[in-house]
Amino acid sequence: MATAPSSSADARVIDGRAVAAGVTAQVAAETVGRKPGAGIAPGLAVVLVGEARGSQVYVGAKGRKAAELGFHSIQKTLPADTGQARLLDVVAGLNEDPSIHGILVQLPLPRHLDKTPVIEAIRPEKDVDGLHPVNAGLLLAGLPGMVPCTPAGCMILIRHALGPDLAGKRAVVIGRSVLVGKPMASLLVNADCTVTVAHSRTRDLAATVRAAEIVVAAVGRAEMVRGDWIAPGATVIDVGMIRLPAPERGEGKTRLVGDVAYDEVAKVAGAITPVPGGVGPMTIAMLMANTLVAACRSIGRDAPSFG
Ligand code: GUN
After folding, report:
1. Using an 8 Å Cβ cutoff, are 238 and 272 in contact?
2. Ligand 1 test: best mutation among 44, 129, 180, most atoms within 8 Å of CB?
3. Average pLDDT over residues 133-144
4. Residues lining ligand 1, CB < 6 A?
């Protein structure tokens, strides 16, 4: 269940850092390379093209966590002017490398590169991002594959707040991206929720959201979801992560906010994820979980399940 109420609001605060630590502890305990005689360490390769500051920070965090868990962790950093053919070559090399079980190409790519052929070049069984069309299809069909890390982490947080059985719950996902919104909707449908996917063309978004017991906001628009959009007691998961200038904290300072107007929504919701410290840590934890699962499957072992 979610953790203690915050002092200024009614909603229980879902502590993503604590839940993520539980997932990574399970990954550490189950890491095949640590078991005597297993002879295999999960291998993760993260490919970064260019020097976008945000991407460097995310990729660094992924590599550090993998190393901390005893994974074989490599980062391929390619110059910003890398061509499509070279990037496809790098992916092909990682596909053939038996020490690598998971490949992640950090997005967004520089504008001159087309991400679709790159994602399609990753072997589906090494696609720890769950973005390959084969994995997207398996998720839609409710079959085992690789599930994108952020929505997989959101499901764990939702169950943390509401318990394992979500059958019949009304859920609204705001945003229809391939990375979050669409797979999130599939996961909720597969859990027997009644799901609405809202997006920029949805009419009367506030009324749509107000009907939901579970709200997942994944649009990337700072504090868009307001307190009067939320049904009392709803579970609110905020995937947004937007850095805003915060001159009140000093010159050049910034603050991180989500898609949800936290202070307003926390007064109405039953449970809410904060930003930072909510969904973000879960994304990295689920990447580690997916890499472990890929490593287990590569040697024909039963893969652990998470959440
Ligand atoms: N950029 C931001 N989030 C992600 C993610 O989950 N996977 C990849 N590949 N790139 C991202």
Report:
1. yes
2. 129
3. 98
4. 104-107, 129, 149-150, 179, 283
Position in ligand 1 atom list of the atom nearest CA 55 = 1
Q: Report phi then psi at 85, rounded to 5.
A: -65, -40
Cβ pair 120, 133 in contact under 8 A: yes
d(C-alpha 205, C-alpha 185), whole Å:
17
Q: Which residue matches tokens 């930072």?
A: 276
**Would you name the residues annotated as active-site residues?**
62, 106, 129
Provide the whole-model pTM.
0.94
Mean pLDDT on 56-77: 94
Tell me the chain's radius of gyration from C-alpha atoms: 19
Q: What residue type is 93 in one-letter code?
A: G
Higher-scoring residue by pLDDT: 5, 21: 21
In the reported structure, the alpha carbon of residue 126 is separated from the centroid of ligand 1 by a whole-number distance in angstroms of 15
Asked whether 69 and 28 are in contact (CB, 8 A), the reply is yes
Residue 50 has pLDDT above 80, yes or no: yes
Q: What are the structure tokens assigned to 249, written together?
A: 């904290």
The string of DSSP letters for 194-223 reads EEEEE-TT-SSHHHHHHT-SEEEE-S--TT
Is pLDDT above 80 for 40? no
**CA–CA gap between residue 252 and residue 293 (Å, rounded):** 42
Token pair 């992640």 is found at: 104
The residue written with tokens 């859920």 in the block is 171
Give the up-direction half-sphere exposure of residue 99: CA atoms within 13 A in the CB hemisphere: 5
Compute how many other C-beta atoms are within 10 angstroms of the C-beta atom of residue 8: 8
